[in-house]
Model the fold of this input.
Amino acid sequence: MHSHLLPGIDDGSPDLESTLQYLRNLQELGFQKVITTPHVMTDLYPNTPAKILQVLKVVQEKIVEVGLQIKLEAAAEYMIDENFDKLIENDTVLPIAAKYLLVELSYVAPVLNYESAIFKVQARGFVPILAHPERYYYFSMAELEHLHQLGCLFQINILSLTGYYGKHVSTVGHNLLQKNMVSFLGTDLHHKKHLEALKRFAADSKLNRQLSNYEWLNPSL
Ligand SMILES: [Fe+2]
Done:
């Protein structure tokens, strides 16, 4: 429920061929359905729901053509930036399962109004999911707990737990799991390097066992 597999519209898959290769690999890893989430960022990737759904359709047709079984849907990952309020107010957003809105914050520092942006998401009737809370170095555990109490659900990256993004991110990720604060598990797959790391994770039976005992909301999507 968090990946960047639509070709050519963000910093994920560069072309249709790569997209099909990633999907084939995910299918081999056991994935049955993927909800991919291209970035929406004002300056870099101003993707609209219409654009995302148009590219999705092309990929879906190709999936059938090449005989893959994996199901592909699309939503988006919204950067909470200065333009995000407008997208919410105009209802030009693409939610996950008509219910959740996947949002992310800058890795450097959040915009000042990020809490009010979260309230606006809720006021529009969506449940906000914060992408990879373990990756925001500026947040203390207390601040993450506060965000969680505001009603923001958390999605953790599988690769965070393997140490792919470093020791700190891994520690915060495991702490969040221990505190039962995580609802969704995602790949955040952008490129081949992520895919190779995911294959190594799949072979790590200890971590796999630990994660399979957790109550994920992914199957509800
Ligand atoms: Fe992402």
